[in-house]
């Protein structure tokens, strides 16, 4: 019972062998698996945080882009409004000018026509006066005196002349 | 068994001595015969069982979706790793497999009497072997960490007067480990044998729980705990 002998060395050899065997078959594989899992979890967490950071950056970019786009669109609308107003004014002005021109030309036309008509009338009146004069002269030359002819002529011509003056 | 007079006591003593005796199982016929003790043979059996179970349980380990068996295995090994890392620190990871081996071996050998074997730790050769290995491990870890010079010097600290005691400590530490384990297992074994000899029915059950299971596991725990503690101390 209380004796040390060669079995001590046997036991030491046994323990060393057991240590090597257990290390190879039990502790190493289990430790490897646990470390592998820890590594995977750490990787997963890293990836997740990376993805979140990326998403944050993208979100900021999109927000900036959106704000830019909104400003841009507002600018465009303002510009368009200004342009539309300018165009509107231009069109109105053009229309006014055109209308004025047309009115002017119409007035000119009317004037011209009136003058032409006047001329035509005058010449007609002159013709009529000549005709009347010829008629009177031919009809009353024998019956009436020169004074009458003269008066009649003056009367006819004067009427025509009065007519134009009245207008 | 007779239960009368002096011859009863004598026969009980004989029976006890017979139980306590470490038989030589067989003799290797070289150098005039080397006796292989029972404890060594039981150790072989324990080794076979431990390695066999390891191979069976470690097969098909998965990183994802581990099974129940794997979870138990992992939490056990993980607990042991955390426990030893807590004592000797992360930088001494390489000693942990040895300590795990020893706690497994001691745990199994201390409760193997439940299966009808004589616990190998009842043999002084086994506990002495364990203690000698612990001694080398303790001193080696100190030398490895701080170098031979520091190791030699540390005997004279804090004052050179204590040097003889410090040198003695090299032997005392493993001796105390060896004797504590041996004494506990032997004592538990003797008490259980006595109880079984006197009252073989029912009464031994609660005592068996304490002496065979609790005390055995406790001693295994204490042995590796102290070894780790001494290693840590030696590295300072």
Topology:
The complex is a heterodimer of chains A (167) and B (236).
Chain A: H1 7-140, H2 146-166
Helix pairs in contact in A: 1-2
Chain B: H1 5-20, E1 24-28, E2 34-37, H2 38-58, H3 68-88, H4 96-111, H5 124-153, H6 163-198, H7 204-234
Antiparallel strand pairs in B: 1-2
Helix pairs in contact in B: 1-6, 2-4, 3-4, 4-7, 5-6, 5-7, 6-7
Count of β-strands of chain B: 2
SSE succession of chain A: HH
Helix percentage range of chain B? over 70%
Percent of residues in helices of chain A comes to: over 70%
Shape descriptor of chain A reads rod-shaped
Please supply descriptive tags for the structure shown above.
heterodimer; A: 167 residues; mainly alpha; B: 236 residues; two-stranded antiparallel sheet; 7 helices; globular
Fold and architecture overview:
The complex is a heterodimer of chains A (167) and B (236). With 167 residues, chain A is mostly helical. Chain A has helices at 7-140, 146-166. The longest helix of chain A has 134 residues, at 7-140. Helix content of chain B is 72%, strand content 4%. Chain B has helices at residues 5-20, 38-58, 68-88, 96-111, 124-153, 163-198, 204-234, and strands spanning 24-28, 34-37. In chain B, strands 1-2 form a two-stranded antiparallel sheet. Chains A and B meet through helix 1 of A and strand 2, helix 2, helix 3, helix 4 and helix 5 of B.
Brief sketch in words of this structure:
The complex is a heterodimer of chains A (167) and B (236). Chain A has 167 residues and is mainly alpha-helical. Chain A is 93% helix and 0% strand.
């Amino acid at each position: 019972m209380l004796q040390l002998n060669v079995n001590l060395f046997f036991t030491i050899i046994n323990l060393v062998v057991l240590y090597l065997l257990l290390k190879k078959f039990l502790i190493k594989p289990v430790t490897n698996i646990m470390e592998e899992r820890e590594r995977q979890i750490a990787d997963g967490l890293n990836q997740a945080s990376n993805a979140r950071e990326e998403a944050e950056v993208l979100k900021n970019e999109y927000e900036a882009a959106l704000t830019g786009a909104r400003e841009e669109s507002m600018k465009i609308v303002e510009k368009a409004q200004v342009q539309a107003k300018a165009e509107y004014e231009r069109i109105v002005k053009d229309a006014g000018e055109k209308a004025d021109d047309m009115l002017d030309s119409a007035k000119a036309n009317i004037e011209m026509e009136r003058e032409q008509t006047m001329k035509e009338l005058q010449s007609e009146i002159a013709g009529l006066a000549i005709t009347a004069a010829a008629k009177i002269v031919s009809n009353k030359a024998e019956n009436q005196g020169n004074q009458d002819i003269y008066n009649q002529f003056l009367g006819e011509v004067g009427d025509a002349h009065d007519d134009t003056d009245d207008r | 068994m007779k239960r009368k007079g002096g011859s009863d006591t004598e026969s009980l003593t004989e029976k006890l001595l017979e139980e306590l005796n470490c038989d030589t199982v067989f003799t290797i016929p070289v150098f005039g015969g080397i006796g292989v003790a029972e404890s060594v043979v039981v150790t072989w059996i324990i080794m076979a069982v431990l390695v066999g179970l390891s191979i069976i349980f470690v097969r098909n380990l998965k990183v994802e979706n581990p099974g129940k068996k794997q979870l138990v295995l992992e939490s056990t090994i993980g607990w042991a790793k955390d426990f030893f890392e807590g004592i000797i620190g992360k930088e001494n990871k390489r000693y942990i497999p040895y300590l795990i081996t020893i706690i497994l071996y001691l745990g199994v050998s201390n409760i193997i009497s439940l299966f009808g074997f004589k616990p190998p730790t009842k043999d002084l050769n086994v506990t002495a072997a364990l203690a000698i290995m612990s001694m080398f491990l303790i001193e080696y870890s100190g030398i490895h960490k701080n170098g031979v010079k520091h190791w030699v010097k540390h005997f004279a600290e804090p004052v050179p007067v204590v040097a003889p005691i410090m040198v003695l400590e090299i032997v005392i530490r493993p001796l105390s480990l060896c004797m504590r384990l041996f004494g506990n297992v032997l004592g538990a074994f003797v008490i259980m044998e006595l109880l079984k000899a006197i009252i073989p029915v029912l009464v031994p059950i609660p005592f068996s729980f304490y002496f065979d299971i609790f005390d055995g596991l406790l001693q295994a725990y204490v042995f590796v705990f102290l070894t780790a503690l001494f290693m840590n101390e030696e590295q300072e």
